[in-house]
Automatic annotation (TrEMBL):
Residues 162-328 form the Fungal lipase-type domain. GO terms for biological process: lipid metabolic process. CDD domains: Lipase. This is Lipase class 3. InterPro entries: AB_hydrolase_fold, Fungal_lipase-type. The keyword Signal applies. Residues 1-24 form the signal peptide. Keywords: Signal. The lineage of its organism: Bacteria, Pseudomonadati, Spirochaetota, Spirochaetia, Spirochaetales. It holds the Pfam family Lipase_3. It comes from the Bacteria. It comes from Treponema saccharophilum DSM 2985.
Amino acid sequence: MFLKLTGKMKKSALPVLAVAFAFAFFSCSNDDGADYDYESNNAVVNFTLGSNVLSFDTSFAYDNSLLVGADNSAYSPALARFAFALAFDCYDTAKVSLKTSSKNPSSSYDNTALYSNFGFEDAEYVELSSSDYLADTRDLTNAVFAHKTVDSGDKKYQIFTVAVQGSSGMDQWFSNFDVGDFSDAATTKTYATLSATHSVAAAVAAGNTDQASVQAESISNYTTLASSFATEHKGFALASLRLKEKFEAYVAEHEVSGSEKIVLLTGHSRGAAIANILGKVYEDDSGWTSFAYGFATPRTTTASNASEYKTIFNIVNTDDLVTELPLKNWGFTRYGTDKAASISSTYLSEWKKTLPLASAYVSANGEDTSYLNGVASGRTDLYKLEDASAVQSNTFNLTFDTEAEANTMLSYLNGYGFGIAAYDPYSTFSVVENDGKYTLSATFRPQFFLNTLVMSICLASSDTTAATKFVTTMCGGYSLLHKRALFTMSQKITGFAYSHSAPCYSILADNLE
């Protein structure tokens, strides 16, 4: 274990972390056989989110033998530590600087400069842009690709890395909670026809490709989504398919003829979910030798054979609420093998060495999630307008003395930038008169509630009057069960960033075997 305290932290409304890391590197060879000795070469990595600043030391070693000729079905602590560095370095706000290297990034953040220190070439930051797609424009991600060629006797290997970024912006948070449902024709229609954002998937599921063919992206993504990816979390799966298209184009540009292809897939949070699904894709592809290491991996699939995948490893802090979503009771799991431990139960002393505000650590370990189970009994029910087996009254009601007041609030909710427009596929609002009072009422699908949950998470650190008014208004209209769910989640929001953060996963990468 190489962790020691060197950090200071400032207070913040939503604990998001700014982290500085120190790394030691050694024994890396590039394709021309030149040796790079980094055994005593420390590096500093600045990882900034919000105003918090944290520093701690860690060490890891990289060598081509971690990937070339290695057993990809055996968990490698050394590879996990290397993957950890790539997973957190790929965030837009990260910068890794080797103290004695001339290959460091400039003063601005550069999430590609690290790779050349290990002999990797053509490191490229890839962004999926909403302007490239006419539908499902929230299902996006960013990543870093790199590659290197290794000669080993009479064989030549080409190693590719794919480091996938975690959630960036509210749209990707909405995607995190849009699990989708393509389990059968009836539920596919219920889900896919809710709005124009799902119209392409609806067309493909119905066997009508004319509508889909006019889209800017390949129809094959939607064909896959409605068939072999039907069990996957839709928001993660479509982002995975889109990123796969980008990666395959990158491989085609840089592939060395006659080489055996190896890929290391990694990421944190949403990035880990996408790496998890891509890990399944490339384990199934005989043309690749794949290694997938995810950190804080959410659940990604309802596939019954998910545990049969042997080259995918999920490093999980069991205190981390993110790793509990989507719910197990909704049928969700992860591909591959979980390597899991509780920071609060096993490594809290290490955590206290890392964070001055150790008392702020919040654990979701053993948390009763029945308040979310009650919202829907499964992924299909999330998209049904009425479901007698789940919440009896999926209603939203705010009462006013005058019709004008009710209509003013309706206009406000409709006009707010992150308001009902974002919820439109999942609800029907109206103003109803009852005994001289006027009620702003909505009948909503449970997904509507999950979107409010996203709103509360993303706006938790905001003091703006509009944001506060919006969240307060929306939460005030829900039934008692939903209010309890939101309250319970709000208690977690102020602390879950700690259990989800880089220091936790550095500790786990250093200690899990």
